[in-house]
Amino acid sequence: DDELQTDGNRSGHLQNGELELTPTNEEVIRIIAAQLAEIGDQFNKEIQGRVVEDLVQQFLNEKLSKEEITRHMSRVVNELARSIPSDMAQEKAMLVLAMLLTKKIVNTVPSLLRHVCNVTANYMNQHFHNDIVEMVSA
């Protein structure tokens, strides 16, 4: 029911005008978001502008399908992941890289928000669904 947003915030559902959250999951989500934000801060400096610009061009290319763009994003995340320190959880780091790339693309071209978020959600579902479920259940 609760969803972790790409900016580390959580969403909830309104019931009778009030935000409804599951108390047991709320703290778990906060902890995971804090860990991902910390990893994100470390990687934010390492993502070069040309990488973001290249992804922006992919999203702007109307000839490419959502699947092609997802594959390109996956390739970029995998390339960036090579610089991940060996003591860091690979899956968490790659998840953070995908979210950071999404944020940087949207900050560069805000009109791509919906398209970029859809592709990122598709990418994360394909590659990290089990890892996300595992993080929440741990």
TrEMBL record:
Establish whether keyword Chloroplast is in the entry. Answer: no
The processes (GO biological process) annotated in the record are: apoptotic mitochondrial changes; positive regulation of extrinsic apoptotic signaling pathway; positive regulation of intrinsic apoptotic signaling pathway; positive regulation of release of cytochrome c from mitochondria
What is the first-listed, main subcellular location in coarse terms? cytoplasm
Q: Which InterPro entries match?
A: Bcl-2-like_sf (IPR036834), BID (IPR010479)
* Keywords, alphabetical: Apoptosis, Cytoplasm, Membrane, Mitochondrion, Mitochondrion outer membrane
* Database matches in Pfam families: BID
| Taxonomic superkingdom | Eukaryota
Quote a single Gene Ontology cellular component term: mitochondrial outer membrane
Q: Where in the cell is it found?
A: Cytoplasm; Mitochondrion outer membrane
Does Transmembrane helix count among this protein's keywords? Answer: no
Task: Spell out the protein name for this chain.
Answer: BH3-interacting domain death agonist
Biological source species:
Toxostoma redivivum
What is this organism's lineage? Eukaryota, Metazoa, Chordata, Craniata, Vertebrata
